[in-house]
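Forwarding the complex inputs:
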Amino acid sequence: MTAESTAASIGSGTPSRGGGRFDAIVVGAGHNGLVAAAYLARAGLDVVVLESSPEIGGATRSEEAFPGFRFSVFSYLVSLLRPEVIHELDLVRHGLFLVPTASTLNPLPGGDCLFREADPQRTYRHIARHSRRDAEALFEYKLEMRRMGHLMYRLQRAAPDELAAAIGDRVAESAEHLDVDVSAEVADIARYFLDLPAARLRSFVQMLTMSSADFLGQWFESDVLKAALSSSSIIGSMLSPRTPGSAYVLLHHYMGEVDGAYREWGFQKGGTGAVAATIARAARSHGAEIRTDSPVARVLARDGRTAGVALANGDELRAGVVMSSAAPQISLGRLLDPEDVPGDAGAGLVERAARWQSGGCAGKVNLAISGLPRFECMPEPGPHLSGGITIAPGLDYVDRAYDEAKYGGFSERPFIDMIIPSVLDPDMAPPGKHVLSCFVQYAPYELAAGDWDDGRREAFGDAVVRTLAEYAPGIEDQILHRQVLVPPDIEAIAGIPGGNIFHGELRLSQLFLLRPDPAAAAFRTPLPGYYLCGSSTQFGGGISGGPARLAALRVLDDLRGVESAAGGGAETP
Amino acid sequence: MLEAEGLIGRSPDSQAYRWLPGAPGGGVAGSSPRRNGLRPLEPLRTPFHRRTSVLCESDSWRDWSGYTCVETYEPTPEREYWAVRNAAALIDVSPLFKYEIAGPDAERLLDRVMTRDFSKCRTGRVMYTSWCNEEGHLLQDGNVQRLAHERFLVSAAEPCLRWFEDCGWSMDVDVRDISEEIGVLALQGPRARAIGEAATTGIDFGAMRYFDLAAGEIGPGAGGGQVTVTRTGYTGDLGYEFWVASERAEALWDALVDAGRDHGLLPAGLLALDMARTEAGLVLIDVDYVSAVDAEIEVLKVTPAEAGLGFTVKLDKQADFVGRRALELERDRGPAWAMVGLEVDWFELERLWSEIDLRPQVVGQPACREPTPVFAPGGWQVGQCTTRFFSPLLKKYLGLATVRGEAADPGTELDVEVAVGYGRRRAKARVVERPFFNPPRKTAVDPTPGVNG
Amino acid sequence: MSDRVVIVGGGHNGLVAAALLARSGRDVVLLEARPELGGLAATRELIPGHRVDAGSHDLGMFRRSVMEELELGGHGLELIEAPAVAAVPATADSSAVVLWPEVARTVEGLGQVSRRDAAAWPGFVFELAERAAALEPLLSRPLELADMGRLLIAPELLRTLSSPLEESLRERFENPSLLAALCGVALPATGLGPRANGTGWPLLFHCALGGSDRLAPVVRARGGAGALASALAASAAASGAAIRTGAVVSRILVDAGRVAGVRLADGERIEAGAVISTATLSVTFLDLIGAPLLEPRFVRRVLNVKYRGAAARLALSLDGLPAFRGLERPALTGRIVLAEQPDDIERAADAAKYRRLPPRPWIEAALPTALDPTLAPAGRHLLLATVHHLPFDLEGGWATGGPELLARVAAELERWAPGIGGLVREHAVLLPTDYEADYGATAGALHHGEMNPSQSLWLRPTASAWAGEPLPVDGLWLGGAGCHPGGGLTGLPGMIAAVSLLRG
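Prediction (whole assembly, three chains):
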């Protein structure tokens, strides 16, 4: 029985009461939509999740694409999943099973490699072969990044408007345009942030603006290590390690942890789809209902307040709260009618949603193979096969791959970040056979010449296999099946416009109060009762659930406020 | 499935590791068959490994900077410990990082980096020193040998090539990591001089003062080869350290073992070394203090004075060394912390253990490195005890502790948390002078073995 | 301790600092290594009988209040505002576009190439001016961390500043020549292509300092940029400053963590209680003070300053005005951007990443004689072609790369102004290596360090601090283009240094 079908068979939600009336409706059953629903249901609300496609999960999806071979279709590793979400939703009880990937292998031309293991001494020796200075500097770098990761971890507990107001209180003569009550916790976080030593604040501002190559260059000299470490700075982003701003993407990935262990990545047994199934189970256990094949056409409003949603088939569901986990082009550009927004708060919303940058940059090539790949640098099976394996042999290599995509081609010699899920979880492939999950950059959403459906998709797949074969000769003969997915596929299947895995580039112009829109950066949209909770909100991107949690808490706060207002302010602390 | 895929039990493909660096100085290549074909790196072996491994009856090993090192040769470290104090012990300390600093600005670089005054370090001398970051926080401690006017050798517990290079930016000096090129043996104990003399030629041991160095040959009869001898060690006893090119390491070992046969020489592992260094009151990086580069939070960082190494800071020296300004400020206001010796009252221990109807279970145990809190009599925490053990020689339960400056005076009564069975109890302890054990023979001119030496 | 202030470097920033300090009654000695003043804003007779500007020559961003306070008009400075801001000539594949200071005039011209762009222009200029005005107060004083906090909570300004320039522009405009013109105004000395994040910042910078009423106007000094230096020097001298040329500073003397003066290459020692260095960070700290006197972490910071986007300049003496297609004479008075589309600049930046010469160098041209005929003998015209985004660490080196670059520049000029080759009578070249050797411009970077957000605002050093930390030497002040707000003829780094020093 697959994880999803297990999920479907247990508690398929409570039947909706009151003929299509709910306390809250969540649009989209990706991991964030499901987290939001679970939090609302856990608080006792009657919640329904509406998913347009036949399956839940969004980009967090597994499928048995070929008999016996299971693929994590898009996202492939878990690290950013917030500990609060794991604990508060009791996700382990509902099926969360994360196997850590303990190492990273960067094969290099000529049978060389850079290998980073869990043991720092061994990693020191691996790097020392390339540069002793860098092997030493890695300790210092990791310490600094651990501190930065800790800072980000703390910042993430605050909703962006509250944080901005708290910072504004401290730095600006007036922050009155931010009419926000700041909780003691957030005030604390703002104080912590502003009282950091100058050098750390400098690192933070640098990470918002610098290229990862320059940022890493502050510690390292060797091209291979800089390229290896910069991988995290380009994942999911149309950026090269030399593009300003890529250091922030690096930081985003350093927020990750497993069990409080910094910078660990984990593989979910059964593939990442099982994460969505797990959260769905948690949501259902609290009474949330999840409906697939239910595309939402628009958000309904009455008297300047949210009233529910209209489905594409014309059905209308009523609720005073609607949360959308979709990207802003959909949530703000399509589902919301600016006319419904009271006053002039809706002005420019649609135009701004249209300028949101969420062009895809990555493809996914999933391979079913007849045996383990033999990397020239380490042909024998070993622990390196249960870690991440990245083809990024140098900064120039990655930059060239980027340059090709910048002008509308796909990378002929791409950057590849892969894992072999079947080594981590034998259930992913028939005994003796394996699946290889390749996250590939760069593949633009739109090609300058030709069309993805016009043979270019397979040409892209060929480029990936050709590149793999440079480092693992013979792999081309091991391939039994191949699945090639490019940004338009991510758009079509996961419903992300442009196919950007983060629902929008992670860069300063799309962060903090700008994510995804100055009028909707605090999860509230200008239409009362309508909220955002997806990856395109604060600190979104990756399987984190963090934005959805903060959004759901904001909804619950607001509902409490409405109640106490309705109770004539009788409620006193 | 694992077997089918060859995850288990397949012999390695010789092509698999062709990028492995050569085996500098022997000991690395071909000595032991791989247990499996999984690892891209061989376990690191010191150049003495072929000798030490056959002697290691206990099969008790420990990782030291990636090297596989003997923890104890025998199942318990007691005989090895007593060899240090009563005869002589031979300890493989090759995993130390070693850097050659050479060039016209070599002395200038060391004076820039180190807290000690290297303008006063003559050729043929060794200096024990600290080095700090810009905030005066301790990075490491280690020995520096002046091999020639413009050539030094620094030995350190952790890598520091980048730091030396960056401190010497624009200086006319070359910093080279020679860690793999040199094997190091510590010969420690009252009989060390006699053994050293018999195992080498060309070195006047009688003329070697504490922290002198001399160069000679291995031999006689061992085939020769250059060896540098320093009168240094990490045991607080009479002792010498022998620095040898890795390819001649085994010859040196053999020569010392042959010479030591009639003097009760034993090879000793790291547990015995740890006991001896604690008795000598010597601090250990990562155990008794945390290097500033490894300290994730500020409170873990210490100055040399706070780590008990204040004597290595020479604020009267001419050169402006890294951290000087901060250390001058500290001199004016006094260090916040101090490294002290603690002596736990024996009768107190007996009393605590008798509560669970046992005699104190501390005798014959290796030193314990799990930090435990130290309290003022009032009950609040004033520091932590980072190493403690029962000294078989002194018959005392001793500890090294970092405590607030105001609790550091000898004679101060403190409480230290000790394990009593499964329980954790507070035992009365007294601040005492370090070192706990300091025999005259350690520093004696022309040392002779003897009971009182 | 001496009351004297020694200023290292007689570029315009050093001269501004000297003049302001002398005016306040301080004992000032300014030391310039070269025989002429002006530094990268000097005018030299690189071609006999021609007054050739070696580097910057646009005074559009120069602080007017400083000009007035120092009475530069009275000291011989005469400004000429160019009728045009920027122009892109036509090619076989693209149309000509001219940006004028007057909105209506620009709209009229744009109407010929894109009605949509013409309609969008006034709104663009208005919005840009609004954001530039919000930024402007941050550019004339030292910044604090709080200022970065303010930026983080000012969404629209932050967005404009941090977005890729081309992307922002494409929200409004479609015509490739127009996009190229705006990118051409913004991107010199950044080393970045218009697709890079943070390239909105340099455009805002130009607009904020160019005066809010017009978009980045071009203003020149009669007689060449060197006239600014002469006027500044005259003003400073009138207030009692001692100005010495040919005085090569070899060392900033430091005693117990405090500056004590400077030593010249000939051994002369000049005592001073304060030293303002207008040299690059690299020269100031690594050459003049010396790494062994600085903390290793500070040395690392200095070594990590980026100087990419080197420049080269080709000066041509022509028999007549070159025929840039589609441009009338008034249009030739401003910046002439030789790029058909933003990607032309992007590709030049691409090549530099790999330490190569771009197949088509990105050239910013100027015809100073179109505005001021006195710069060349009668009948001659002077064309200055500045090639941006060059790799200083060119693969194969500049000995062979220089001639190759010249050949490519010549071909590119011929493409934009057919027949120009036949007009050339004489020429002179400054390569990135010349800029470094002659002017101490580390790695040939005219702005003393890339002008991108990671090296700007709070992250760029200013007067006596660098990103929240004081400079390591007491009595040392920084006042060159490597300081906040950055490069270009603004006078601001020098002014900020002087004002900060006077405040103590």
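The first strand of chain B starts at residue 60 and ends at 64.
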